[in-house]
Every structure is written in C-alpha cells, then in structure tokens.
Amino acid sequence: MIHLPIVPVIIPLLAAPLCIIFRxxxxxxSIALAATWTSFCVSILLAIHVVAVGPLSYNIGxxxxxxxxxxxxxxxxxxxxxxxxxxxxxxxxxxxxxxxMEIDSSTQPYFYSLLLICITGLxxxxxxxxxxxxxxxxxxxxxxxxxxxxxxxxxxxxxxAYQYLIMGTIGATFxxxxxxxxxxxxxxxxxxxxxxxxxxxxxxxxxxRTLITAFAFLTVGLSLKLALFPLHLWLPNAYSYAPSxxxxxLAATATKVAIYMLLRFCFGVIGNGTIFQMTLGKIxxxxxxxxxxxxxxxxxxxxxxxxxxAYSSVAQIGYMxxxxxxxxxxxxxxxxxxxxxxxLMKGLLFxxxxxxxxxxxxxxxxxxxxxxxxxxxxxxxxxIGGLSLMGVPMTAGFISKWxxxxxxxxxxxxxxxxxxxLGSLLAVxxxxxxxxxAYFNPSHENEEDIGEAPLSLLIPMWTxxxxxxxxxxxxxxxxxxxxxxxxxxMEGI
Amino acid sequence: METTIDIVLxxxxxxxxxxxxxxxxxxxxxxxxxxxxxxxxxxxxxMDAVDVAFTEAAVGTGISTILLxxxxxxxxxxxxxxxxxxxxxxxxxxxxxxxxxxxTMDLPAFGTPDAAIHLHVAxxxxxxxxxxxxxxxxxTSVLASYRGYDTLGETAVIFTAGIALVxxxxxxxxxNELAVKNEQGSLSTIQPATLHDxxxxxxxxxxxxxxxxxxxxxxxxxxxxxxxxxxxxxxxFASGIILYSLIFGLDTAxxxxxxxxxxxxxxxxxxxxxxxxxxxxLNGGNFLDYNTLASxxxxxxxxxxxxxxxxxxxxxxxxxxxxxxxFSFRGRHST
Lengths: 493, 335
Fold this sequence. Notes:
heterodimer, A: 19 helices, B: Four Helix Bundle (Hemerythrin (Met), subunit A), 0% strand
C-alpha cells in the first residue's frame, strides 16, 4: 500500500523494454494493455486514498524531501493521474486494430514501447513533487511523442514531427532554464520546498528580477508545450498527420499535463492566487480569449476533419487557460474540470476519426458523405461528442462551460462571457458541417460498400460516449475532485 | 589566471557559435560543433565540474559528431540558403537573450559561499554522503543514490532515443539486414571496408581499440572514486566499436556484435535498473532504497550503485551503437 505512488509510473516504464525484448506485436500489445490497466487501477486507488485520507508522499531511494526525489500526490495530481491513466487504458484496446492498419507490422513493438514511454513520461510529470524530475519525465514524454507522430502513415508526418520537435525542444529548454533559475534562488528542487524557501528568504515580495525571469521562461515554455495561441502552430500538423491512436492519446492527455505543470508552478510555487492574478493571469488572459475566437473560426474552414478537431483543441485549451487566468476558486474549478471533460470529448471525437480512416482511408469532409447510414454507430458517437464539445446540457461539456460562465460572471466580466458563448456557437458551426455531410448528403455512387467499424474500435468509443453522458448528468466525482484541487491551489502551500 | 582562461574559452565559444550559424557547409558545421563541445568541456573543467566535462567531451565531441555525420550522409553536404531572411527569428533570439541577462542581475555572484544553492541542500551531500552512501566521489552519490531516480529517467531517455530512431528508420534497415545475410551466405568473405587501403589507420586502430575498450571499463568501475560512471563508459565503449566498424567495415562489426544483441542489451540495461529498484521494494525499502540490498546499509549502497551503473553503461553502449548502425545502414541503402 505505501508503495502505490510509484507503481503507475514504474509499470509502464518496465513494460516498454519488455516490448522490445519480445518483439512480437501481439505480445507487445498485451504487455501494453496490462501495464496501462494496472496503472489505471492503481490511480483509482490513489485517488480514493487521497480524497479520503489526504495527500500522499513517497520518498524514492528512502531519502527525505529536499535531498532526494519525493512523489507528492494531492487531489490535483490524483485527478490528472486519473485522466492520463484512464485515457491510456481506454485507448489501448482501441489500438490493436487501428495500429495493425496504420503501422508496419515489424515496427509495431517499437510503437507500443514508445507509447508506453510516453504514458510513463506523462504520469511521471503528474505524480512527482520535484521540479527537475518533472523535467526528466517531460523529456521522456516529448521525445517519445515526436517519434510516435513521425510514425504516421503519410510522409508529411515526418515534417510535422520535426516541426513539433523544434518547437517542443525550445519549450522544454525554456522550462529547464526556468527551473534552473528557481534552483539558483532557492537552493532546492522540491516544489513545495521552493515555495517555503521563497517565503523564508523574502524573495517573493521584493520584485526579484531572477524570479520574474524564471517565471517568464516557465510560462512561455509551458505555453509552447500546451499549445496556447499563438504558440500553437505545431499542434494542427502534429495531430492531423500522427497515427490515429497517437492523436487520440496526445489530444486527450499531453496538453492537459502541460496545463497541470503550469498550475503547479504558478500556484504551487508563487503561492496564493492573488499574486498570480495580478501578474501572469492578466498576461495569459488575452491569448486564451484569442485562442477561443481565432482557432474556432479557423476550424470552420478546414477540409481535413482531423485538422479541424486539432484547431478546436487549440480553442478548448483557450477555455482551460481562461478559467485558470481568473484565479478564483470557481475559475480554477472550471479550468480543471474542463481538462477532464475535454479529454473525454476529444478522445471520443478523435476515436471517431480513427474509425472513419480505418474504413474509408482518409478523413476529408467529402469522405463523410453518407456515413450516417453506412457507419451508424460511429457517426452517432460523433454527434454525441460534438454535442459535448458545444456544451449542450446533459453532456460533460456543458458542466465545464457552465462553471466557466459562472466564474466570468462572478468577476463581472460580461464581455468575456459573451466570448465564451460565441466560442460555443462557432463549435456548433464546425461540428454541424460534418453532421450535415454525414447524414444529409448522398453518398458517392461508385463507391463500394463501407461497413461499420469493428467492435474493438466501437467498444472503447462507446465507453467514452457513455462517459460523456454520465459525467454530464452525475457530475459529483469530477466536480468534487476539481473543486478540492482548486481550493488547494488557491490556499497555496 | 582562471579569469583569463575563462575569457579566452568563452571568446572562442562565441566565435565558434557564430561560425556554425554562418557556415553553409554541413561538414564544417559538424566539425565546429565538435570544437564547441570541447570548449564547453574545458569550461566545465575550470568550474571544477569534471564529471560534466567528461560527459560533454565523450558525448558532445565524440558520439554526437559521428551521429551527425551519419545523418549528413543521408542528405546533402550543403545547407540550402533559406528563401527569406529570418529577421523575426533573430528578434526572438535577441529578446530571449536580453531577458536572460536581465534575469541574472539578481543572481548571487558566481562562487559566493552564501548563495542559496550552497546553503540548503548541498551541505548534506558534502558532509554526509561519504557516511550515508559511501563513494568518495560525491557526484556519483548524488547521481546514483540521492537522485538515482532522475538517472533512471535519463537512461530511459537514451533508450527512447534509440528505439525512436530504429522505429523511424526501420523499413530500409530491415531490408539491409536481409541483404547482409544473403551476402554472407553466398560469399562468406569480409566485405571490403571503406578504409581498407589506409594501412596506417588500420594498424593504429587495431592498436588503439583494445585500450579504448579497457579505458571504458575503467571509467565504468572507477566512477565511485573519480569522474566517470555508466554514461561516460557506455559512450566510450560504443566509440571503440564505432571506430572498429569505420575502419574494418560495418559487416565485420556486425559479426562482432549484431543488432539483435544490441537490442536485447539496450532493453536489458534499463530492466536491470528498474529491477534493482523493485528488488529494494521486495526487500522492504522504498523504490531504489539501496540500503536494503545488504546487511550493512553502506554495502547495500555500494552494491546498488554498482548494479545501476552497470545498467546505465549497458543501455548507453547498446543504444549508441544501434543508432550508428541505423544511420550507416540507411546511408548504404540510399547510395
């Protein structure tokens, strides 16, 4: 029981080299499946424990906090841990057929190994309480995701991966510079201890220039990683050319983990929300609003639907950052909740894309003609995912939008409220384009019959459909976790 | 005196960096990058960070130069002039640079004894590590024990880099493996190597390679007492093999150590590291708590550090050679 915090990270990390040793695609998939499900189960146990008993910490190597590396799990970590491990557990059953189709069979073990390393990296970032350890696992997740994107079926995947590699490396370097400067100020790498040392040495109030620079680098670096407008340029290409499974997984988790890092540094280290709102909060408000508006409009004009959803992701990231930039408990709740809900809906929508490209071969808007009849279950899932994305009541997306609007009204920001609603209307427009083509346009005459997607794709997809509806009706679990996390962040450490 | 050395080194560093940006011949740029690494290694030495300098010299000057040359073999040796003047990029770089300089203004001066980094965590590392952990080289204590988990992460990063490369270059890689087998089956003679006619290189290489490998082993096992450890040792051992394959040809090298063996070794090193961690849990401690590995805690630390350094060395060696093979194979296929 006391070793639980390390288990979700170590199991996929151990599974990754095992996939390489056995080099059978079937075995690699089974190992990956077992590893992700173990991680997910342990994450659930951890979340239950954290909510019931309180924060958990675990000293790796037996060395106490500032000297060794400590895992520290509170409600926020536990929640993000659930998102990442849960999504990987849902994606893996989906992966077998989809990967079989898109990846050369001799490279499949490498693919699963890299996917496991990416999962390890993201989970490692989430559970650690040590700033440099966070960077090490960020490296792990980034490096593997560049390779995973580059394994996409089309040749342009390599260009997209290269673009992401350059942008991501700049981002990671900036984060490292930020962590380095914080270390030179505080003499510690433990995030909680950093906050304590900043207060003890009275660095916080004095307008220390090194501290300002450290946070400037951290914010810009993390904004690159989480694709905040206008630093999002790598994202549409990366998402549209990556293998379907990679797009599903990264869209549902990677940007959320970067947002988590931003929260951890900005609230965990600086402390309470007031300082954040006076400084960084104001700065990231404008890009967040621009993301909602501009990315949604750009999404309307996309012909590649995967690309359209990628732009929609940029817009949705804008919502999360907007919630955070309010720096109120309601705002943070909305932001954190939207991380969860967005993982559910974008995971679902990209799964639909994966299924369509499995049957049709590509996901241009024209390929959707007549799919409403040919792939009824898949397209029904798309409709529900789309409704959730717009924020229609009874779906998960509604809850986070609701809290976001509530937070905006609490602050008395009417103009922001109008922008949020406008963003939802734009989502209606781009989702409707696909729905209209699928259900109301006649199918191509000379095309051979396309069947429904195989069950192994449909079951994970419909699991997410049910999750989208369930968490739109019974919101207690994610809402409680998000509220607790927001309260923790506002109190500071 | 030290200031003068620093100033000279930094000036050279700046000149080299400018030259790398300016030059269009990729071969020259790669050589300059090697010099850049060597200069930074010297700077690390003047800062008394010998372990870092060692790594930089082995990785930056040695392996990465070879890998970059391998990558260059896939493309042109000449960089195309971009169709536009990247003024925006220059602006971003200038802004970033000036912010960095602005940020250093409130930093404690270099080497001040009362700076936060010297007062908070460091004293325990300096005073207690010989008693708690054991090795006289406290860098090893920090890297392998206090922050051993970071080192595990870094080993995994190296492993990831290797399998990422193989995954991306693999389709032609496969074809060539078959081709080699066929040639061996039909002719069973050693392929003429690129440097076959260079008698001096062959003889000097033959003389040096055993010593390079021996030195790598020394670095591996002497890391407790002086600068060194698994990373450096793995890289040096790999450069011995790479030198061998440059002189005697890829096929000969692959008979010495095959890609399959490397694949297994690379994974095995990482598994060994994680395995030690799990063994510590089974013995009743936390993950990577080496104290539990033997009856006396310090013996346990010694054993634990020995094992994980072995894991690091194995993985780094195997992955470096794998990357070299991957590039060379592809290079041969495309030409």
